[in-house]
């Protein structure tokens, strides 16, 4: 699942992003209201974590603009702890409001709660050939057989599935699945892909992960 963090405090953004990615979420970060609004309305996210006091335009305005176009769940993260602020956020269309400072365990619980509530009555299963991914239950099957993955393996697979047919560079994979900038001297992405292949590709005739030498990977059911 993809989460957008709109937060101008670098330490807070990094802390939240790291924690969420460790739990298998794909996370993007915007450091001001304008960039956050742009990402929120041009990309698909399952949840937006939104600060109130932001450079450019504030979180209230971001939420109002988003709600004119989308119903993406929004959880406010703010140091503004007055009841009026919380009420305002909820009345504007936020799904929850968490006051800073907060424990990551509480944030994670609220994220999971909002995501459960935010599920709309449609089939959200991701399918590529005979591979199926249930993002809500984090369940993976291929040809009807259950496949057990680690948190990172699952995050990598979901990233591939949501970008099926696209060129996925090692740089983008590292930034999206790991909280890191890709270093050409490290093989962390290739090692992770190799482990994922052993579980979802090697036992099956049709291969889904295809290496594009020197660039990255393409995830689809092409031959070869």
User: How much strand?
Assistant: 15-25%
Derived from helix and strand composition plus strand pairing, the structural class reads alpha/beta
Q: Helical element count? A: 8
Name the average pLDDT. 87
Uncertain runs: none
Give, in order, the helices and strands: EHEHEHEHEHEEEEHEHHEE
Quickly describe the structure.
This protein has 224 residues and is an alpha/beta fold.
Element layout with pairings:
Elements: E1 2-6, H1 10-22, E2 26-30, H2 33-42, E3 47-51, H3 59-67, E4 74-78, H4 83-92, E5 96-99, H5 104-117, E6 126-128, E7 131-134, E8 139-142, E9 145-147, H6 151-162, E10 167-169, H7 170-177, H8 188-200, E11 209-212, E12 216-219
Parallel strand pairs: 1-2, 1-3, 3-4, 4-5
Antiparallel strand pairs: 6-7, 7-8, 8-9, 10-12, 11-12
Helix pairs in contact: 2-3, 6-8
Jot down its keywords.
single chain, about 220 residues, alpha/beta, 5-stranded parallel β-sheet, 12 strands, elongated
How would you describe the overall organization of this protein?
With 224 residues, the chain is of the alpha/beta class. Helices cover 40% and strands 22% of the residues. The chain has 8 helices and 12 strands. It has helices at 10-22, 33-42, 59-67, 83-92, 104-117, 151-162, 170-177, 188-200, and strands at 2-6, 26-30, 47-51, 74-78, 96-99, 126-128, 131-134, 139-142, 145-147, 167-169, 209-212, 216-219. Strands 2-1-3-4-5 form a 5-stranded parallel beta sheet, sandwiched between helices. It is elongated. The two termini are 29 Å apart.
